[in-house]
C-alpha cells in the first residue's frame, strides 16, 4: 500500500512540474504575442482586428518558428561547450600550484582508521585551523566559490 501511495505522489509531482513549466512557457508566449499586438496597433496595421483575432492569426504559429530556430542553435552551442571541456580538466591541476597556502603532504596517521574521504577531510581541517593561527591559508576560506581551502587540499591529498 505504501508503494502505490509513493507512486501516486511521484506521478502527481511529475504532472505538477510538467504543467508549471508549460504554464510558464505559455505566459512568455502570451507576453510576446501581446507585445506584437501593441506594436501592430501603434503602427496601425491591425485593420480592426481584436486581440483574440490577432492572437489566432499571428501567434498561433509562434511556437513552430521558435522550435525550428532552437534546433539549429543547439548544434552551434554544442561545439563551444565541447571546446571549454578541455581547459576545465587542466584548471583543477593548476589550482593547487597557484595558491600560497600551507597544505599537508599526506593524510595524517591519526586518521588512518577512518574512511579515506573522512581522513582527508580531518587532515585538511587540522591544517586549516593551524594555518589560521599563523595566517598561512593564502587568502582561502574553508569553502568558497571557485574552490576553497578544502577543495585545494582534498585534490592535493587525492592525487
TrEMBL record:
Region of interest: Disordered: 65-87
Domain of life: Bacteria
Signal peptide: 1-26
Keywords in alphabetical order: Signal
Keyword Signal on entry: yes
Protein name: Uncharacterized protein
Species, as recorded: Komagataeibacter xylinus NBRC 13693
Amino acid at each position: 500500500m505504501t508503494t502505490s501511495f509513493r507512486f501516486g505522489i511521484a506521478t502527481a509531482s511529475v504532472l505538477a512540474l510538467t504543467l508549471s513549466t508549460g504554464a510558464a512557457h505559455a505566459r512568455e508566449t502570451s507576453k510576446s504575442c501581446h507585445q506584437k499586438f501593441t506594436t501592430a496597433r501603434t503602427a496601425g496595421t491591425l485593420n480592426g482586428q481584436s486581440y483574440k483575432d490577432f492572437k489566432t492569426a499571428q501567434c498561433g504559429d509562434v511556437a513552430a518558428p521558435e522550435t525550428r530556430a532552437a534546433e539549429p542553435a543547439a548544434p552551434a552551442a554544442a561545439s563551444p561547450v565541447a571546446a571549454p571541456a578541455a581547459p576545465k580538466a587542466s584548471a583543477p591541476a593548476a589550482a593547487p600550484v597557484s595558491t600560497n597556502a600551507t597544505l599537508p603532504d599526506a593524510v595524517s596517521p591519526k586518521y588512518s582508521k577512518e574512511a579515506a574521504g573522512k581522513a582527508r577531510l580531518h587532515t585538511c581541517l587540522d591544517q586549516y585551523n593551524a594555518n589560521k593561527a599563523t595566517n598561512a591559508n593564502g587568502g582561502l576560506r574553508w569553502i568558497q566559490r571557485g574552490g576553497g581551502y578544502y577543495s585545494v587540499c582534498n585534490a592535493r591529498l587525492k592525487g
